[in-house]
Specification:
alpha+beta; 39% helix; 243 residues
Length: 243
């Protein structure tokens, strides 16, 4: 990124789940014209806080580059026994889970690599449904394989999740505590992904009404404004993660 401080734009927070803007200006246009143009990605209610996305980066990379552990949804990856990177996005501790395809897997399915991800610029509710739809298209053995791989990965770690939780609780503030806390959240994420996939395979969660109710419907029932895209009116709280 060839720019330093970008007035006004730098006031917008990153939030993968609440991302509601997109950049219209290309890098070349910014260099030549010295301006940026940002637009909302879909209809939002008045007074909604604007968010953008640093990209669907792995959550440990977000922490390394921007010094904060992002809120859900979080993307994590781990190495399986064969050394292959397994990557997934977890939308909440309860799921759902989006499994990322490798470029090769995308090619095998006749997809262009960039089509392997759902669009960031759609509402979180829409993206959760897209994640579930995506899971339904995976062969059962692939889902079982991913879940088993996640469970074996956790079993190979030198400390258990419970031990990490204890270590994090008692560590004095500082880099060590931060490292243990991130490791704990990472393991929680891997365990939650495996758990959700097992439940999905058993038919305990899936594409049926009521699992992920549209929050906009509840906003309307409370008499709040409707934006038609499942986001509801944003609360005014600001937590800036700027460097």
């Amino acid at each position: 990124w060839p720019f330093g401080v970008l007035p006004v734009y730098d006031m917008v927070n990153h939030h993968l789940g609440k991302c509601n803007t997109r950049l219209k200006t290309t890098e070349q246009e910014m260099l030549e014209g010295g301006f940026m143009e940002v637009e909302v990605a879909f209809d939002i209610a008045a007074d909604t806080e604007l968010y953008f996305s640093y990209g669907e980066k792995e959550s440990k990379a977000i922490l390394r580059d921007y010094a904060f552990l992002e809120p859900y949804p979080r993307t994590w990856d781990f190495l399986d026994e064969s050394g292959e990177v397994r990557r997934f996005t977890l939308f909440s501790p309860e799921g759902p889970v989006l499994l990322w395809l490798t470029d090769q897997e995308a090619t095998n399915r006749g997809m262009k690599p960039q089509e392997r991800l759902q669009a960031v610029s759609s509402s979180l509710w829409t993206r959760k449904l897209q994640a579930l739809t995506s899971l339904a298209q995976f062969p059962r053995k692939d889902l079982e394989g991913f879940a088993a791989s996640a469970e074996r990965f956790l079993a190979r770690q030198p400390t258990t999740l419970a031990e990490d939780e204890t270590l994090a609780r008692h560590a004095p503030p500082g880099d060590r505590k931060t490292a243990i806390t991130v490791r704990t959240e990472f393991k929680r994420g891997v365990a939650a992904a495996a758990r959700f996939l097992r439940a999905f395979l058993l038919g305990e969660v899936g594409l049926h009404p009521g699992v992920y109710p549209d929050p906009e419907r509840h906003t309307r029932l409370r008499g709040g404004p409707s934006n038609g895209r499942g986001e509801g009116r944003a609360r005014r709280h600001h937590h800036h993660h700027h460097h």
